[in-house]
Amino acid sequence: MPELPEVETIAAGLRRKAAGLVLEEVRLFLPKLLRKGTAADLAGLHDMKIVDVGRRGKHLVLSFDGGLTLLFHLKMTGQFLWADPGSERDKHTHLSLRFRGHSRELRFRDVRKFGFVRCLATSALDSCAELAALGPEPLEIGRDAFARRLAGRRGRMKSLLLDQTFLAGIGNIYADEILFRARIHPLTRAEALRPDDARRTWAAVRNILGRAVAAGGSSIRDFKDDDGADGHFQFDHRAYGRKGRPCRRCGTAIRRIIVGGRSSFFCPRCQPRRRGPAPN
Questions:
Q1: Which pLDDT value is given to residue 6?
Q2: Could you read off the pLDDT of 82-133 as tens digits, one per residue?
Q3: How many Cα atoms sit within 13 Å of 98 on the Cβ side?
Q4: Which residue ranges form the domains of the chain, and what is each CATH number?
Q5: Mind listing the pLDDT tens digit for each residue in 67-89?
Q6: What proportion of the chain, given as a percentage, has pLDDT over 90?
Q7: What's the confidence (pLDDT) of residue 276?
Q8: What is the 3-class SS of the chain, one letter each residue?
Q9: pLDDT higher than 70, residue 279
Q10: Nearest-angstrom CA–CA distance, 131 and 42
Q11: Which residues are catalytically annotated?
Q12: 33 and 61 in contact (C-beta within 8 Å)?
């Protein structure tokens, strides 16, 4: 599933190319793609200008000047791509946006059909069910605020980083990379962390996500940006997907365990498991 760096990469690309364009036509080819609405809601976007393309957690946000917003979630295999309006539309293309005076249209395709789009009033965006419960943006929260948010939390650190109400946008790939950089075992419980562990985790969140955004995300299976280009951060992974390969820090073989039903990769030497509560 595309995580914060991948969605931010797509948002940045669309912001450069689509901001200022006036929507001429919306075509919906898969009705279930539209959550809580009908095709008539999309028709209300006609003749509106895209004023911004943003991101909230793993959601992509297209804001229009008429007070409406399209909220997308890519789920597992959602992709945006630019195409010639006259070119053949493959069976996985479920929505297209055509713009006035523009030579290409924007298509949304999703092989597994788990993604969705909502059309809603921009004023209702922050309170909608998809966004209302999300935690802070990982690249915006300060160190002290992060420490306060972590204090009193219980449960395994891998599961906590995946909890979108704790921080918005981190998924399986970057949780593993963050914990590796912070030298924290995925099964270490939040209540066992010391203050220096919290500081390292906050720094690791900013470092890993910032570098991943700069690299255009990680292309593991399906991810490509709106130009069809792969990301490059997968070449810098230290833990994720590297079971049995030597740790790039110490040479110990990377291990894989299951945490909360998700594969978790870690170095048993660099990330020793800490048990029990943190000392007073």
A1: 98
A2: 999 999 999 999 999 999 999 999 999 999 999 999 999 999 999 999 999 9
A3: 11
A4: 4-132 (3.20.190.10), 143-266 (1.10.8.50)
A5: 999 999 999 999 999 999 999 99
A6: 94
A7: 64
A8: CCCHHHHHHHHHHHHHHHCCCEEEEEEECCHHHECCCCHHHHHCCCCCEEEEEEEECCEEEEEECCCEEEEEECCCCEEEEEECCCCCCCCCEEEEEEECCCCCEEEEEECCCCCEEEEEEHHHCCCCHHHHCCCCCCCCCCHHHHHHHHCCCCCEHHHHHHCCCCCCCCCHHHHHHHHHHHCCCCCCEHHHCCHHHHHHHHHHHHHHHHHHHHCCCCCCCCCCCCCCCCCCHHHHCCCCCCCCCECCCCCCECEEEEECCEEEEECCCCCCCCCCCCCC
A9: no
A10: 20
A11: 2-3, 58, 262
A12: no
Q: Which two tokens stand for residue 178?
A: 């963050």
Side chain identity at 50, as an amino acid letter? Answer: I
